[in-house]
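All the exercises in this workshop are built on plain-text protein records. Sequence and backbone structure share a record, each on its own labelled line. The question running through the whole workshop is how a given chain folds. The record below serves as our worked example for the rest of this section.
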Amino acid sequence: MYNRGSGVSEADGRNGGLTPETAYDGIADVTTFYQTPIEFYGNSSAAGQKDAADTTVPLAGVLDPNGVIRKVAASGTWIHLPPVDGGIGPENGMRTRFPVFPMHVEGNTAWKEIKAFQAVELTGDTAMSSLIREEATGARFELTFANGHAHTLQIDGHSLVTALKYEGDQAEFTTSIDNGHDHMVTIRRVQDGMFEMISLDPEEPHRLLALTDSVTVFDDNAGPNGAPEPEPEGGSAGGVIPAGLTEFMDQMINTTETMKARIAELEERLADQGSTSDNCAEMSDVKDMLQTITSAVVAE
């Protein structure tokens, strides 16, 4: 047989039939690897005894280099090999494909990891996969900027899946040394992948921020993923609007709208009559309104 390659031997609708028009035009390594003479298995019916997992046809016609049709069987590895002519092999064929692994892999750490991964994939146990990811990566946090410095906190993967394995578990860890000191931090697992800082010794106004993508931070006074919310302008604690500010803003808006209307009216008069001294009093009114707004802003 001669190898024509995939897509060539079966071109023009050739399907391994026993006519010149339908026989495979040569073989291909992957798709049409038929080159074992059917006589090797005694006859075509013998070649038809195969396992359901053997997806090849039992008998195929293939053109040799001279264009002669040859009756052949698949030459790859069978699940059950058809009985070989001359009484060789069991009646139903010899099994030739087994999931046999070398004995030396038993107990091998790589083999254990493969089987563990297989168990996770087959069961869909997301809790198990989360713990595996946490143990592999650990968690890195930052104690955000306060008093002119920040700290980092690294929790190793083993501690995450032992000391902080369950919701409510808490443990103490030591931060990096910055600004000449470190902190003892108590971390608690709130839920899967979420942690919170419940104490800091010595105390400072740091907040906890997650730097590892696989974990998040619970903080009532913080933004997404534990990031501190920006302080409101003017130093208002907690973002609370000072008393009377709403009324003051409403007054400014109303005064500004009135002033805009008066200016538009004056511009229209000037366009019709030209600039005269009679408009001075009205211009004085506009100036008074501007002064009122300026004084109010300064007072606030």
Remarks:
- Residues 101-137 form one domain.
- Helices lie at 44-47, 109-123, 126-137, 157-161, 245-273, 280-299.
- The radius of gyration is 42 Å.
